[in-house]
Amino acid sequence: MKLVPTNSATLSVIIRNRNEGTTLGSVLQAITAQEFGAAEIIVVDNASTDNSVSIAEEHGATVLPITDFTYGSALNCGIAHSTGELIVILSAHSVPLGRHFLSECIVSFEDPSVAAVRLVQVAKRADILRWMAPEVLSSPDQDFISKGPLASG
Predict the structure, then answer these.
(1) Mean pLDDT, the chain cut into blocks of 10 residues (153 residues total)
(2) Scanning 34, 74, 112, 116, which has its CA 20 to 30 A from the CA of 56?
(3) Are the C-beta atoms of residues 88 and 108 closer than 8 Å to each other?
């Protein structure tokens, strides 16, 4: 399967959330300010009792409620409802830096041997995790490549 060049690909951003109202707004502002716009933003919400859902809705995100949370099931739910050719997955406390974050995430897919891109945490300040340029994980012939845990289930 040949991927669509990134300059014409559509992009879905999926955000896992549970009671992350203190940071979700910053994440959504950072995503909507990107030079490469997302076709859609989906927030998979695990029965939040704070203002997370209203924050997501105010930013135009589609909110998908779940109650039986696992990391894998939350991601699978978001992916099943997405329309983008490429998918970026974030946690609701992972605030992207700069206006080129999405572009840097997806530029690697211009190489047809790239199967996935993994982001690496750079610093922790308060409760906000900030991320740097992606680490490319290639070789679509292998089942899984990771230097750390990724979601399953």
Answers:
(1) 52 93 93 84 96 96 92 92 90 86 82 78 46 39 34 35
(2) 116
(3) no
Assessment of whether the complete model's pTM goes beyond 0.70: yes
- Dihedral sign (CA 83, 86, 33, 51): positive
Question: Quick check: 39 and 85 in contact, CB under 8 A?
Answer: no
Q: What are φ and ψ of residue 114, in 5° steps?
A: -85, 125
- What is the DSSP code (8-state) at residue 22? H
In this prediction, residue 122 carries a pLDDT of 56
Q: Say how many C-beta atoms besides its own lie within 10 A of residue 55's C-beta.
A: 24
Residue 2 burial (CB count, 10 A): 5
Q: Which of 65, 51, 59 is nearest to 16 (CA)?
A: 65
Kind and range of the H or E element at 79? Answer: helix 71-80
Please identify which residue in the block is written with the tokens 């206006």.
99
User: What one-letter code names the amino acid at 83?
Assistant: T
Residue in 55, 60, 61 with CA at minimum distance from that of residue 26: 55
So what's the pLDDT on residue 149? 37
Find out whether 116 and 140 touch, Cβ atoms under 8 Å: no
